[in-house]
Amino acid sequence: MTVTESIFTPAADRSLDIAVLVLPRASILEVASVLDPLRNANRHLGEEGFRWRIVSPSGADVALTCGIALPAIGPLHAAVGADALIVVAGYNQSEVATRPLIADLRRLAGRFRAVGAVDAGPWVLARAGLLDGHRATVHWEDLEDFASAHRAIDVVPDRFVISRNRFTAGGAAPAADLMLHLIGARYGAALAGQVAASFQYEPQFDGSRPQRPGLLPVVGDARLVGALAMMNAHLEDVLPLAVIARAQGLGLRRMEQVFRDALGKGPGAAYLDLRLQMARRMVSDTDHSLRDIALRCGFVDPTSFSRAFRRRFGSAPSRIRTS
Alpha-carbon distance 158 to 33, whole Å? Predict the structure, then answer.
């Protein structure tokens, strides 16, 4: 039997039971971003408005990226009976989310009122066909590949997305925003604000706001922010610096000074660094060929890419991939 009642509605007198499926190599920050807002909400409520349980693919404790083993009460079947299931995944989701796990997810999804995912978790739901026909997001580094791989999903770059009885968040901070939204939907905006204040956190209650790429430094000059945003949006089709400067109302010499004052490097070097940082992520975390990565990061040929990569990181991209 499929359950469709939304969990994002006023709670009345009913607590919400959430099962969190944590995959190996997930981040402890992602897990905490899901659970700690709920724990804190219970403290402010003075009652158990939220309950949770941790399950893992094997049922055993699950190793997180920081080396901590997170206790689990059992495998995915132990999640049955919860109102909602949230899949938290990080690195190597394609390896740790095995075919039997995907099959179990597909079979059991209808037993929950809602199914959600955090960071790389949407990949797992998508492989099970659970996001087809829904709007969804994923971590910003994966957006292009995710959209290409799953044409039946309306992929958007939002921080978090609620699509009927599916919800997705692009990472740890967006997951916290999503949980605060859930708390607010069930118990009111005042409680959500209290929880956010407890963590000295400024939430983004509007999930449709785009994910802020972590490549961009926190800077105060709006012209610099705008220039960096343009660069980050054009890593493949590299823009002339004159075009970027003109869009920010600057001359080339003035833009050079703005960059050097704030970042200690010129705009050309900053642009190259953005492209190479993205390239390193793709070399380490994807199966794309080095030629494809070079093109996606704005290099006309693999030789110039490898030369720039080695200068920046001290090793050739092929060596980093092998290691």
Answer: 17
